[in-house]
Design goal:
With 151 residues, the chain is an alpha+beta fold. It is built from three helices and eight strands, in the order αββαβαβββββ. Strand 2, helix 2 and strand 3 form a beta-alpha-beta unit. The N and C termini lie far apart (36 Å).
Length: 151
Amino acid sequence: MDTEETVWNILTEPIESLGYNLIRVKMIGSNKLQIMAERLSDKGLDINDCVKISKFASVLFEKENTINFDFALEVSSPGINRPLIKIDDYRNHLGSYVDIKLKKIINKKRKISGQIINLQDEEAIELKQKKQTFLIPFNIISECNLDPNYL
């Protein structure tokens, strides 16, 4: 299990019990851990929430023996170009416009933008781009973010 997955497993339930949804855990370089979260109540996050989550996570990490937590911790909101990570994220943003980076080339492109119009059996999204529709399997999506130009 890598650091991101370990941290995700350590934090998910305790963070939720505090009233937050864990969106993403990401190692940036070898010494910075980014925790992205939002309030369950209104999907927002302010500086006081970030401080609360940071202190809470630090205490949990100190108690944990399965990994060496020798890194800087950054807690942030998802922002206007929120990443879509879980299938529920895509479901909650049906109709939204997104920018997607692909793990492999589709239609001569590694990046694609468009509107999420449907989920296919929780295995792929249908993306509408102008008059074309693409079926993009989740397993080839490297990164997907809301397009702030359409908010």
